[in-house]
């Protein structure tokens, strides 16, 4: 990631991120029912670094571990699972203190108390296949050395639990959703810093998923972007999480890969045509665009329709999320103020222009992840060049 100068105003301080499950009922109403016969996904390009997902199937780490969840902190819950924080870490005997890499054959591991980890446990009897598929694709992704820069590290499958459970390194600074909900407590200058930082991280992460691993995430939204603290409070590490609906392009998605959350889905995904509704690279780009637009606005672009499923679906189908967002006076005012700060710092063009190419209605018109990275990097580089070196604080 290229150097981004981050301002830390005296009144910005640190921000508080909390886990809030108050919107679960609304999200459940938005959730699509997985199709029973998903169509085959088609890749737009053939990438040179393609690796076999099937080859990773036998290398998923098995962890002989039974966590005590009676006193564990609940971090969140979704359609298939609940996620808890636990004080346990698997030890790598060759490199103590570091997460294990997937072994060539399944094996048992031992644990010792160290730092906080997160365990994802199934809440439905039919979730076993979902967990197995997620463990498999995460193991596949982690075959790439830079995966931990963009994806929350996966440790392995816990075999000592009564229901399927997956262990991850815990992202200790909450989610982008919780940050979004608390962002009104930040100064606008700090908000702009965070937006640019997270924008660059997420676009680079999407490029990694699409162009390096050929993976379609299929459910990008603020709740599935997890944050980890760094030495600089204003620059948390943002990484993709929840690969329960993900699949490798040019493979047949499993039956649960058609799900998603209405307000973060691309217009074509609401089509009755299975070929059009199957997640693609382009739908991932759109979902990432809506996610970043939400952070810019300070709320869901379709906020006024979240309690009316029919109106919400029709609005999503129109493919004009920015217009809907700007109908909210609070959203429009926040974007205008951020635009003013952007221009004062020397930013070029409209700040909404950094996400607009991802939000085009027709998927063939949307920007690809690589081009999006280039656009964002160029805009931030110009901004950094325009600013006086003395105004930026590097952590």
UniProtKB/TrEMBL annotation:
Record flagged with keyword Nucleotide-binding: yes
Domain Protein kinase: 69-380
PROSITE patterns from the UniProt entry: PROTEIN_KINASE_DOM
UniProt xrefs under InterPro entries: Kinase-like_dom_sf, Prot_kinase_dom, Ser/Thr_Kinases-Pseudokinases
Coiled coil: none
Disordered: annotated span: 1-50, 91-113
Keywords: ATP-binding, Nucleotide-binding
UniProt KW RNA-binding keyword: no
TM region positions: none
SUPFAM superfamilies for the chain: Protein kinase-like (PK-like)
Residues of the signal peptide: none
GO molecular function: ATP binding; protein serine/threonine kinase activity
SMART domains per record: S_TKc
Listed PANTHER family: MIXED LINEAGE KINASE DOMAIN-LIKE PROTEIN, SERINE/THREONINE-PROTEIN KINASE TNNI3K-RELATED
Protein name: Protein kinase domain-containing protein
